[in-house]
Write a structure and sequence with these properties.
Number of domains: 2
CATH architecture of the largest domain: 3-Layer(aba) Sandwich
Shape: globular
Distance between the termini: 41 Å
Order of helices and strands: HEEEHHHEHEHEHEHEHEEHHHHEEHEEEH
Number of strands: 15
Strand content: 15-25%
Number of helices: 15
Radius of gyration: 21 Å
CATH superfamily of the largest domain: Type I PLP-dependent aspartate aminotransferase-like (Major domain)
Largest sheet: 7 strands, mixed
CATH topology of the largest domain: Aspartate Aminotransferase, domain 2
Strand order of the largest sheet: 4-10-9-8-7-5-6
């Protein structure tokens, strides 16, 4: 039998062991974690909607009318009017023809990628793509070619050398670095190469674009240029679930072929209603994104002045590159002693030698709360050096 205990001990000795914190109360910057009050800078609740009163009220009202459980898959009797309304809202919100509501972003990527490519096909995947994209590629049984992060020229060479059906898949905003994919260049290359482009914009939807439509809206990329957009709802939107948006031909194809859509119970319809309420707020309150951008600029200016190494990100994901696993853990520990919760990210989530603190900012953070973080980082500046 495999020695699981030994493997766990090896991870502990390498500074790679992971633990869970027990959080109490609503998700917001001021949290109770393991019984202690902390100010969190590690959540993906980028717009502060996870515990917004209007979203919570919409959920409670919907539960009273439609109950809790989804009860069946979408193709049996689980596809509720609430799901249908949300899909129409998501299509309009992202400027696409249609949308499908999935249970999670992980399931969306697994289902979409494995449905759109199979044996005899080739998938091209950015080397820093999320684990769900990597696993979707493996599940598809297609040949997978990984290209260096955001390297359009290498991808162009790979595409030129490949025949048959070609699928290119990339994150829109990369979850651990916070940078953006060169989507305009990728879209043009895929048109020239007759390749289907899929963008997972989990960390862009709600945050980027004039109306919060994400990376594609910010760059003005149409459905013709980027056929399929995948987004999650548990980050900036503040609820749960995921979606894929694109031409009706492709979403109908996914209804027939995406196993993670076909063979799972539909998400609670009340959750779909709450998500519509969250989309209303995103559309009506652009000041949330404006405040967030001000926080990002202030954080970058002050943190770099302290000597910390930041990644080239203009998104709420602001990684502080440390390098060594133990130094990253020590920086996280010292901040937590000051009541600041910022988690250390280590391999295999990031490459060897690139351990970091993944700071994430939210529109729910106040100027005073950001100042607390900056003061804490100033006191730990001895750990800033590479």
């Amino acid at each position: 039998m495999r020695d699981f205990a030994s493997e766990l001990e090896t991870r502990k000795q390498a500074g790679l062991h992971r633990t869970r914190r027990l959080v109490d109360g609503p998700q917001q910057p001021a949290l109770t974690a393991d019984g202690k009050p902390v100010l969190a800078f590690c959540s993906n609740d980028y717009l502060g909607l996870a515990s917004h009163p209007a979203v919570s009220a919409a959920l409670a009202a919907a539960v009273a009318g439609v109950g809790v459980g989804g009860a069946a898959s979408h193709l049996i009797c689980g596809h509720h009017q609430a799901h249908h309304r949300l899909e129409q809202r998501l299509a309009a919100f992202t400027g696409r023809s249609s949308a499908l509501f999935f249970s999670t972003g992980y399931m969306a990527n697994l289902g979409v990628i494995s449905a759109l490519a199979g044996r005899g096909d080739t998938i091209f995947s950015d080397r820093l793509n999320h684990a769900s994209i990597i696993d979707g590629c493996i599940l598809s049984r297609a040949k997978v070619k990984r290209y260096p992060h955001n390297d359009v020229q290498v991808l162009a060479d790979q595409l030129a050398q490949t025949r048959g059906h070609k699928l290119v898949v990339t994150d829109g905003v990369f979850s651990m670095d916070g940078d953006l994919a060169p989507l305009k260049e990728l879209a043009a290359l895929c048109r020239e190469s007759d390749a289907l482009l899929v963008v997972d914009d989990a960390h862009g939807v709600g945050v980027l674009g004039t109306h919060g439509g994400g990376s594609l809206e910010q760059l003005g990329l149409s459905e013709d240029e980027v056929p399929l957009l995948i987004g999650t709802l548990g980050k900036a939107v503040g609820t749960s679930g995921a979606f894929v948006a694109g031409p009706e031909l492709l979403t109908e194809y996914l209804v027939q072929k995406a196993r993670t859509y076909i063979y799972t119970t539909a998400m609670p319809p009340a959750l779909a209603e709450a998500t519509c309420a969250a989309l209303d707020i995103i559309t009506a309150e652009p000041q949330r994104r404006a405040h967030l951008q001000r926080l990002i600029k202030r954080f970058r200016d002050r943190t770099q002045a302290l000597g910390y190494r930041l990644m080239p990100s203009q998104t709420p994901i602001q990684p502080i590159l440390v390098g060594d696993n133990w130094r990253a853990l020590e920086l996280s520990r010292r901040l937590e002693e000051m009541g600041l919760l910022v988690t250390a990210i280590r391999p295999p989530t990031v490459p060897e030698g690139e351990s970091r603190l993944r700071v994430t900012l939210s529109a729910a953070h106040t100027d005073a709360e950001l100042e607390r973080l900056l003061e804490g980082l100033a006191q730990c500046a001895d750990l800033a050096g590479a």
